[in-house]
């Protein structure tokens, strides 16, 4: 079996950056045509056959759930929604999860929705719908647990900021390469994400009024965000140690074919 026959299994994602082909001596060749321009390489400019095989649905359900809870809480003033907040004085177990879908005001929500869409979509495209939901819940709830352990019992926690930082960390790690351009891109984007999410979180901390003023106001931001990012990193490292069945099957198939030659 020649090298050209195995390139689909060894390089499964080369179709994403098409047009590329593998030359006879193992050299990548770039074929340009009239339709090859910057716009065609963007997601919106790609034809259907060049896009990823996974259909992105999960992130939109997460966004709709956040929006629906906000509307029920702030527009319809439903008292039942307040029971979803994380009250540090006497929390219920489910509040560590439900608080990640609640927001203090529109500025807090809109900023989180923007970054949830960007990084949640990246995670879902790479790892799938189930992995997205698990990542969102574990990073968001984990950030709330750390905040509950560290912050005063008078505090109240709401918001998806911990999940945002967790999804950001996961999306960076699953797409990370040691290309200096990628590293520079991550540094620039990371600084922007941190600044914007911190601004939104500053607005959300006014929810508890005087109970969260002063030093506690700063602590809730740093603790929730940092812990969410660290949990995201831990998830990627943990999953990375689990062997992939599909990867093992592909490698076995290649070895079997080479043996028959």
Any overview of this molecule?
The chain has 261 residues and is mainly α. The protein is built from ten helices and four strands, in the order H-E-E-H-H-E-H-H-H-E-H-H-H-H. It has helices at 3-10, 38-41, 58-75, 95-98, 106-127, 129-150, 161-174, 180-204, 215-240, 245-260; strands spanning 20-22, 28-30, 86-87, 156-157. The strands form two sheets. The protein has a two-stranded antiparallel ribbon. Helix 5 (106-127) crosses helix 6 (129-150) and helix 7 (161-174) packs antiparallel against helix 8. It is globular and about 70 Å long. Pfam families: Rhomboid. Keywords: Membrane, Transmembrane, Transmembrane helix. It comes from Asparagus officinalis. The chain crosses the membrane at residues 56-76, 96-118, 130-150, 156-174.
Structural class computed from helices and strand pairing: mainly alpha
Instruction: Return the CATH architecture of the largest domain.
Output: Up-down Bundle
Instruction: Give helix % range.
Output: 55-70%
The structural domain count equals 2
**Secondary-structure element order, N to C:** HEEHHEHHHEHHHH
